[in-house]
Amino acid sequence: MIDIRNLHVSVEGKEILHNVNITILDGEVHALFGPNGSGKTTLIMTIIGYPQFKVTKGEIIYEGKNLLNLEVDERARLGIGLAQQRPPTIKGVKLRSIIDFYSKNNPEKVDYISKQIEKFEMQDFVDREINANLSGGEIKRSEIFQMVVASPKFFILDEPDSGIDPEFLGKIGGMLTEILKPKKNQNQISTKNTGLIITHTGDILKYFDANQAHLMMGGNIVCTGNPKEMLKQIQQHGYEYCVRCNRRKREL
């Protein structure tokens, strides 16, 4: 699905990412761990195509296409979606406008979205301006519900579990489960969305089985392994423990 190869990225002339390599296969979901300032947000903004993040070396191959040749909107049309950690308020645009865009001239989609609105109790959100006068947890619900509606082939969630209470986390976990459900495409072939989820706490991992996890520190991937094992070690011993453990494995 997506292959990040030897990626180097600079922001305002300062290199932030150094030789980043990640491969996520069709239908896989990977977790990305790392302390603040390690380069995680730079990585996802580079995948999306924000112009201030300059790729100085390497490539990002998505379904056989080099994303570096494409603008943000072109990448979105290929099925890449992002739920931001701190999305902006969009005055004058209601959530219903987003819903109508994705369900236009598609009765099956209209029916599906109507069921999801009821299932995830989003009735009070759809006729409000996007993220206007919402709490932090409500903003995350709205943002990830848009992922449910859009169902991008490759989705990126930036810290969906940060700063929210258990009730909101349960609702977001349910939405993630919905995004990951196998769905039939136009040819009636069952497919599963692919994703990358950034998380500090790892709480969101309770709701799905991640295929792999990566630890980013200092702008590089320093460890890749079993998500549950990595999270356990990070919670017990900190990020540096994973670095030392990975180094020992390479030396054996």
Structure description:
By secondary structure, the protein is α/β, with parallel strands linked by helices. The protein contains 8 helices and 14 strands. Strand 13 and strand 14 form a beta hairpin. The longest helix has 15 residues. The two termini are 32 Å apart. The relative contact order is 0.17.
CATH topology category name? Rossmann fold
Number of domains: 1
- Spatial ordering of strands, largest sheet: 6-9-12-3-13-14
Number-wise, the strands total: 14
Oligomer: single chain
**Biggest sheet statistics:** 6 strands, mixed
Summing up helix and strand content along with how strands pair, one would put the structural category as alpha/beta
Tell me the span between the first and last alpha carbons. Answer: 32 Å
What's the SSE pattern?
Answer: EEEHEEHEEHHEHEHEEEEEHH
The radius of gyration computed from the alpha-carbon positions, rounded to a whole number of angstroms, is 18 Å
Low-confidence stretches: none
CATH architecture: 3-Layer(aba) Sandwich
Apparent shape: globular
Count of helix runs: 8
Helix percent band: 25-40%
Instruction: Kindly estimate the percentage of residues that lie in beta strands according to DSSP.
Output: 25-35%
CATH superfamily: P-loop containing nucleotide triphosphate hydrolases
Mean pLDDT: 84
